[in-house]
Design goal:
alpha+beta; Ribosomal Protein S8, Chain: A, domain 1
């Protein structure tokens, strides 16, 4: 049995009689919309912070060397023979920088400028005098770990080692930079 639906107009009339009289709401101006905040690249910021932290972290191999006293470090492709020659002082030192008496921040800046200049001049063997730390609070060199860490981060540093006694001993570090061919000009 089919039921017959009331006509559509009857539904509308029924609805209006059920709710009673209506009046329109007064018009209001919408609240000004605030701009959404700019997105923060959190992953990028975290990656940057991690990279900076990693660049300041001491390589465990360098930390071990510093604990043992004498520095001796080389890249994997550099032969042990080259490092031994550097330790003996067989390479002619082309320039040196003395970091004695500087605080850590000043020493970092001067070392960076020295390395930039050495690359520009295409020097291959350098001496960095950082001292033994005999007059420091802890009786150990404050600048030697800074120098070792910075040198290990430079891509063109092939090897570095504590200088032989006649060139400063553990108070100086000899550095061997990657040689570059001079271009004809």
């Amino acid at each position: 049995m089919k039921r017959k639906l009331p006509p559509v107009n009857a539904d509308v009339d029924l609805f209006r009689s059920a709710i009673g009289a209506v009046r329109p709401l007064p018009e209001t101006t919408p609240a000004p919309r605030q701009r959404p905040p700019k997105p923060v690249p959190r992953m990028h910021l975290r990656d940057e912070a991690d990279a900076i932290a990693a660049s300041h972290a001491t390589d465990p191999a360098i930390a071990q060397m510093l604990a043992e006293g004498a520095l001796a470090w080389r890249r994997a492709h550099v032969s042990e023979r080259v490092l031994a020659r550097l330790k003996r002082g067989d390479y002619a030192v082309q320039d040196e920088v003395d970091l004695h008496g500087l605080n850590e921040a000043s020493a970092r800046k001067l070392l960076q400028a020295f390395l930039v200049n050495a690359r520009r001049e295409r020097w291959q063997c350098l001496r960095i005098i950082h001292g033994k730390g005999l007059s420091s609070e802890h009786g150990a060199s404050v600048l030697r770990p800074v120098v070792a860490h910075r040198l290990s981060q430079c891509g063109d540093v092939l090897a570095f080692a504590s200088a032989p006694q006649n060139q400063g001993g553990s108070g100086a570090t000899l550095v061997l930079l990657q040689g570059r061919q001079r271009t004809a000009g």
